[in-house]
Amino acid sequence: MKNIWMVTTFLFLFILVMLIFYHLYYRMNIKHITKQLKEIMNIKDTNELLTVVVKQRDIAQLVNQLNNLIGDIRRSRIKIKRLNRNFRQSITNISHDLRTPLTTASGYVQMLKASDLDKEQQEYLAIVLERQNMVKILLEQLFEYVRIESGEIIYKHIPIDAKKIFMDILVMYYDDFYKKGQEPSVHLPEKPCMIHGDEQGVKRIFSNVLFNAIVHGKGEYCFEIQEVGSSYVFTFYNLSEPMTEDDLDYIFERSYTKDKSRNKKTTGLGLTIAKEITKRLNGTIQAFYNNGKFSISISFPKI
């Protein structure tokens, strides 16, 4: 009886020790796999795969499945990179190929416009010129977007007065507000708003957002700069058509436009470009809709 009890105790202790070791190896494997995953995810170009410290069937199966998934992700990344590269090259080629004939056509239209035409013919030519200018703007924005996305345009990070740039762009669009019979409400701080940025880049951001407001806005324009914590926030308000959460989610996406008929003078790239430049200048840009008013807020760290 005593021998049976000793054997039973020994077996129990043996099983307990085995379970403890199995548990420890389990934890070692999980920690090892987690560490490897973090390293693999942080390194863009690597062919490393997951390994295990101690072979355990269920852990080994999990690692095999994860390695298959990692392989699929890498192949997808390579495919997306290739597609993006081809897209950028196609846009560049299209821009170059269309610029010359477009410029030539514009010259002939201008010559016709200067000739002795009746009122109806002049109106038709004005429409043709407007459409040509729209195509020109589209090509320029496509070309600019491709250059920004590919990293070809390098933005400086030097001290600049964003308030002065903001005011310069507002003045540039004064005639557009005047033609709409609108007088924007402007609220600015007295002191300069110094940020680390690129003057041309910040000009493009403000210009694109203002142009979007003029084209799509319904009135009651209000533009302001606020000092919020460690940032300067530049906000553009205007009355707007009703907007859904989907509109706000996708408004900065490439070629997205709420005007599905595309009858307005917009390409859908202006806000996308504004967002890309803002990100490269360490800023943030957001869109909101509340009580019939649409707003875009751009935040830059102050210095």
UniProtKB/TrEMBL annotation:
It comes from the Bacteria. It is a multi-pass membrane protein. One of its GO terms (molecular function) is phosphorelay sensor kinase activity. SUPFAM superfamilies: ATPase domain of HSP90 chaperone/DNA topoisomerase II/histidine kinase, Homodimeric domain of signal transducing histidine kinase. GO terms for cellular component: plasma membrane. Residues 93-303 form the Histidine kinase domain. Its EC number is 2.7.13.3. The keyword Kinase applies. It catalyses: ATP + protein L-histidine = ADP + protein N-phospho-L-histidine. The chain crosses the membrane at residues 6-25. The keyword Transmembrane applies. It is found in: Membrane. Keywords: Kinase, Membrane, Phosphoprotein, Transferase, Transmembrane, Transmembrane helix, Two-component regulatory system. This is histidine kinase.
